[in-house]
Design brief:
Length: 186
């Protein structure tokens, strides 16, 4: 393509045989930037810095990949991979927030995300811990029972042993579920 000044310009949207292709530098694509930030976060030991990086990465999102639209196209696995990476980053973020003692700040976000993604054990566990630490142990137990019923009805299986142990620990008010230092889980 020729520019008005006689030079050439880069065409970002080009026609391909099967449709269109968007050609642009990777640094301009949110998905690339997201993966880059998450990769950097894997090298961080400070929960404060980890939280900041993961929030920065997740701020690039406006919800599920392609707004939740699904396809049977073979390239759909890319969308599945990005969505899984988004949810894993969110799980990492909420676990860091729990280690920082921010359970009350994340309860609503966890309720929303775990409700729309009931197949994610880490989200369910983080929600149960956040509710328990916020003095809402009855709701934490209800989350477990709801999850257990969903698994039984949908797949005929029991909740994961880690969720079962967490449920029992919450019922017993086990100190292991209480806030720990940054070196402990949850």
């Amino acid at each position: 393509m020729r520019a008005a000044n006689g030079g050439t310009t880069h065409r970002a949207l080009v026609t391909e045989r099967d449709g269109y292709m968007l050609r642009m530098p990777a640094r301009m694509v949110d998905a690339y930037r997201f993966r880059e930030i998450v990769a950097r976060s894997r090298q961080i030991s400070s929960d404060l810095r980890l939280r900041d990086l993961l929030r920065q990465a997740l701020d690039l999102w406006r919800g599920p990949v392609l707004g939740g639209w699904t396809s049977t196209h073979p390239d759909h696995s890319l969308c599945d991979s990005l969505e899984s990476a988004r949810l894993t980053a969110a799980e990492d973020l909420y676990e860091a927030e729990l280690r920082l003692g921010n359970h009350e700040l994340i309860v609503d976000d966890l309720i929303e995300l775990s409700t729309t993604n009931p197949n994610r054990d880490r989200l369910t566990a983080a929600l149960m811990v956040a509710l328990h630490r916020a003095g809402r142990s009855t709701e934490a137990a209800a989350v477990f029972h709801q999850r257990r019923r969903w698994l039984r009805n949908e797949f005929g299986v029991n909740a994961a042993p880690t969720l079962q142990r967490l449920h029992i620990a919450i019922l017993r008010h086990d100190p292991a579920v209480e806030l720990r230092t940054a070196s402990g889980r949850f």
